[in-house]
Amino acid sequence: NAGVMQNPRHLVRRRGQEARLRCSPMKGHSHVYWYRQLPEEGLKFMVYLQKENIIDESGMPKERFSAEFPKEGPSILRIQQVVRGDSAAYFCASSPRDPGAGTGELFFGEGSRLTVL
Amino acid sequence: GEDVEQSLFLSVREGDSSVINCTYTDSSSTYLYWYKQEPGAGLQLLTYIFSNMDMKQDQRLTVLLNKKDKHLSLRIADTQTGDSAIYFCAVPYSSASKIIFGSGTRLSIRP
């Protein structure tokens, strides 16, 4: 029973390029969350998605960042025209049920570490 | 606003108790969480407490919740080298549509 799978684990991009980070939730999980962890900082909420819907994107920067969770396939976090400040670890988490139902536990992937040169 | 605060570092001697503190500004009435992150890895749920409880004990772990002061703490008894990690407090907001994490407390163990 595979856990949350994120790829790539490490990604290097030059300023101005695009970064695409993928997240396959655990089997049976239809709720996906993206968090960003900057060096020596905590996890910052970015976006919460259910299949084909963005539920809460209050943590997403207004420009260059987008996320999707299509009916088929992984969730994608896309960063256009990357800048050095985008260098961080991006974590995906999934959950099998609505927030507030059950214990609300999130299951995390191992993260994708983006380095912008 | 949404804010969850923790101190960044804690150093304890092996065998002593570790106490990690967390304060928050608001939460929905569900569970509050402690997650553990080992080097180079994602986070794993360590323990949680329902918001109508004051205390929860689970083997070496004790969670205390003071809702009036919006204060959550995690106590690890008999701290071992394997407990070295970053510990995150996590609190649901906005009808639990998102879970806000603190900055994490890096626990280091002295021999």
Q: Care to describe what's here?
A:
The complex is a heterodimer of chains A (117) and B (111). In chain A, 37% of the residues are buried. Chain A has strands at 5-7, 10-13, 19-24, 31-37, 43-50, 53-56, 65-68, 75-79, 88-95, 107-108, 112-116. Helix content of chain A is 0%, strand content 48%. Chain A is globular, with a radius of gyration of 14 Å. In chain A, strand 5 (43-50) and strand 6 (53-56) form a beta hairpin. With 117 residues, chain A is mainly beta. Chain A is built from no helices and 11 strands. By secondary structure, chain B is mostly beta strands. Helix content of chain B is 0%, strand content 59%. Chain B contains no helices and 11 strands. In chain B, strands 2, 4, 5, 9, 10 and 11 form a 6-stranded mixed sheet that branches. A 5-stranded antiparallel sheet of chain B has the order 1-3-8-7-6, with no helix packed on it. The mean pLDDT of chain B is 91. Chain A binds chain B through residues 4, 33, 35, 40-45, 48, 55-56, 58-59, 91, 93, 99-100, 103-106, 108-111, and chain B through 4, 6, 8, 28, 30-31, 33, 35, 40-45, 48, 88, 90, 92, 94-104.
Could you tell me the number of beta strands of chain A? 11
The ordered H/E elements of chain B are EEEEEEEEEEE
Distance between the termini of chain A: 36 Å
Q: Please outline the major beta sheet of chain A.
A: 7 strands, mixed
How much of the sequence of chain A is in beta strands?
Answer: over 45%
H/E element string of chain A?
Answer: EEEEEEEEEEE
**SS content category of chain A:** mainly beta
* C-alpha Rg of chain A (nearest Å): 14 Å
Name the quaternary structure.
heterodimer
Helix content of chain B: under 10%
**What structural class do the secondary elements of chain B suggest?**
mainly beta
Shape of chain A: globular
